[in-house]
Automatic annotation (TrEMBL), chain A:
Alphabetized UniProt keyword annotations: Membrane, Transmembrane, Transmembrane helix
Protein's name according to its UniProt entry: DUF4212 domain-containing protein
Pfam families according to UniProt: DUF4212
UniProt key word Transmembrane helix: yes
Entry keyword annotation includes Membrane: yes
UniProt signal peptide: none
Transmembrane segments: 21-42, 54-73
Domain Sodium symporter small subunit: 9-86
InterPro entries in the record: Na_symporter_ssu
Length: 88, 568
């Protein structure tokens, strides 16, 4: 066991899952929400030369995905350090 | 210099580069052959994953599909990038910590079952084969178009090249070759987009030009113009779709989850030294992929508009065939464009209704785009080199999965446990050779459904691997019976649905007959849901996984102590 005690192991996993779920909610809302389910509503809004829903489907969602993974990588590195389960 | 000579020179140079790298980094051991000794930097690995990922289908046909489908084409953009979010957060770090070579290895060990391993091997081989069958055709099309040879010769040339560096190089050779290929591919994809954006909107960035105004002083937005043109010509509005919301939702999900379940993509994350690097590799992979995916819809819009303008003329009256631009004449030779003068006025006309006189294959969009936009010859040649890079890199990655599945998972772990490393490597190379021959055969004699089988591969991966791996990591009590039952139900359901609508009763393949309005392209999502449900129910009936397996699952949930990828 790499953790100091059982509680640490549980807390680490819980924090990990909560970070993951938060980011996945954004992932879902931006792609399936803005890009698909709400696309007609958002298309009423103009964003430069784009209809906003269309922009999310073809540009915005992809940009968001990159940001999400970036935040995940950073968040997990912090978490690993906090519980001292990082690699040397 | 003419286009043909330039193409020879540029394609030739890039080729020399790939082969040089393959020879320079020859695999010395089985470990090298499979996972590049675990010593690949996350940025290099990210580029290689990106090259692996962007197949001939992505490079050559994605922008074309979007150009013709407009908003509906977004399923590919979101589907083939969003999967990396799942991969980075739910799979890659844990599989890296687990430290095995292949997906079947994980499934076999996690579910402590030879049966589970064998089913996973068979799924991996099925998924990879359906995927590669289309790739060899793509390789052949690119070669035959630009070397001006017939398609059979094109495929054979491609087979020889792919064989050469997969078999000699193994994973390490492939990784560095793919880094080079990514660079060629990305450059070749972006240059024409920048040119077109400058010409049409005055923006240097295609992504802002896409939302900019047309550079003719009218002040009209490009997309507005395109929407207007589309409606005038009897097409659906470019920025609106025709597919139902349910179907768009399910197709996007199938592509996303399928991406996260494709064995040749997952295996990439075994090739980095640390768990943290696996996470970072996923980030870099998506960043590099996004460069191309953010450009594809701009190429689609610019290309569509240019195409309409050069065929129908600025006044939308049609251009006289005798004055047709050279790209139309060039592509007519390939049979991918044809003109039928229905109203005998000697003018071409392209539209979405009965006035239409043009048959235009959507796959030519990217390759023909520089010619349509009248860009310099070297750009046309560069695009050809990019197509070659895309086609070769994916084939090589897939072949590696097939050869490891056969030699490592099937022979070493199942049928012939006593073979030495050397023999295993020999069998891996032999399997690659056989796989190339078989896929080459499908390249020369395509079974007529190559385009469909690529979407097929995603649905199959989504409905088989993804739930088994997710449950294996996030539900430590999940047992082997549950996982096996789930995989079988998922893949059999998806396979049957696709086969039924695509091959048995294609005449019924309309939204009215689909289950819940889900097309065969999106059915993998439903198969995945069935897989999860069945696994849960069977698990409830058969009890938890043994204690040592639960401890094993606990241990892959944190990075500390991750060693090199291990054989056993």
């Amino acid at each position: 066991m790499a953790f100091k005690n059982e509680d640490d192991a549980k807390a680490y996993w819980k924090e990990n899952l909560s970070l993951m779920l938060k980011l996945l909610v954004v992932w879902f809302v931006v792609s399936y929400g803005f890009g698909i389910l709400l696309v007609d509503v958002l298309n009423e809004i103009r964003f430069f030369g784009f209809k906003l829903g269309f922009w999310f489907a073809q540009q915005g969602s992809i940009i968001t995905f990159i940001v999400l993974i970036f935040l995940y990588v950073r968040g997990m590195a912090k978490l690993d350090n906090k519980y001292e389960v990082h690699e040397d | 210099m003419d286009i043909q000579t330039l193409t020879f020179i540029i394609v030739g140079l890039t080729f020399a580069l790939y082969i040089g790298i393959a020879i320079w980094s020859r695999a010395g051991s089985t470990n090298d052959f499979y996972v590049a000794g675990g010593g690949v930097h996350p940025i290099a690995n990210g580029m290689a994953t990106a090259a692996d990922w962007m197949s001939a289908a992505t490079y050559i046909s994605m922008a074309g599909i979007i150009a013709f489908a407009g908003y509906d084409g977004s399923v590919y953009l979101m589907g083939w990038t969003g999967g990396y979010v799942l991969l980075a957060m739910c799979l890659a770090p844990y599989l890296r910590k687990f430290g095995k070579f292949t997906v079947p290895d994980f499934i076999g060990d996690r579910y402590y079952s030879q049966t589970a391993r064998t089913i996973a091997v068979l799924c991996a081989i099925l998924v990879s084969f359906t995927y590669i069958a289309g790739q060899m055709r793509g390789v052949g099309v690119v070669f035959s178009r630009f070397l001006e040879v017939d398609i059979a010769t094109g495929v054979i040339i491609g087979m020889v090249i792919v064989f050469f560096y997969t078999v000699l190089g193994g994973m390490k050779g492939i990784t560095y070759t793919q880094v080079a290929q990514y660079c060629v591919l990305m450059f070749a994809y972006i240059v024409p987009a920048v040119f077109l954006s400058l010409l049409m909107t005055g923006h240097i960035l295609p992504q802002t030009g896409f939302g900019g105004t047309v550079a003719d002083g009218s002040g009209q937005f490009l997309l507005e113009r395109l929407d207007g043109l589309s409606t005038q010509l009897g097409f659906a509005e470019y920025t609106e779709g025709v597919r139902s919301k349910v179907d768009v939702f399910f197709i996007t999900a199938a592509l996303m989850v399928g991406t996260a379940g494709l064995p040749h993509v997952i295996v990439r994350f075994f090739t980095v030294p640390k768990v943290r690097d696996a996470r970072r590799s996923a980030f870099w992979a998506l960043a590099f992929i996004a460069v191309v995916y953010l450009t594809a819809p701009t190429i689609a819009a610019f290309g569509k508009m240019n195409m309409i303008n050069t065929v129908n003329g600025p006044d939308l009256q049609g251009v006289e065939y005798d004055n047709a631009p050279s790209w139309i004449k060039n592509w007519e030779k390939t049979g991918l464009i044809s003109w039928e003068d229905k109203n005998d006025d000697g003018r071409m006309f392209y539209s979405g209704d009965e006035r239409n006189e043009m048959t235009i294959d959507r796959d030519i969009m990217v390759l023909a785009n520089p010619e349509i936009g009248d860009l310099p010859a070297w750009v046309v040649a560069l695009v050809a080199a990019g197509g070659v890079a895309a086609a070769l890199s994916t084939s090589a990655g897939l072949l590696l999965v097939i050869s490891t599945s056969v030699s490592h998972d099937l022979l070493k772990r199942n049928l012939m446990p006593n073979i030495t490393d050397k023999q295993e490597l020999m069998y891996a190379r032999l399997a690659a050779a056989v796989a190339i021959l078989i896929s080459g055969y499908f390249g020369v004699y395509p079974p007529g459904f190559v385009a469909q089988v690529v979407a097929f591969a995603f649905g199959l991966a989504a409905s088989s691997f993804f739930p088994a791996i997710i449950l294996g990591i996030f539900n430590k009590r999940m047992n082997s019976t549950g996982a096996i039952a789930g995989m079988i139900v998922g893949i059999v359901f998806t396979f049957s649905y696709i086969v039924f609508f695509k091959f048995i009763s294609p005449e019924l393949n309309t939204p009215d007959h689909w289950l819940f309005g889900i097309s065969p392209e999106g059915i993998g999502t439903l198969g995945m849901i069935f897989n999860f449900v069945v696994a849960f129910i069977v698990h409830k009936m058969t009890g938890d996984a043994p204690k040592d397996i639960q401890d094993l699952v606990e241990s892959i949930r944190y990075p500390k102590g991750a060693g090199e990828a291990q054989d056993h």
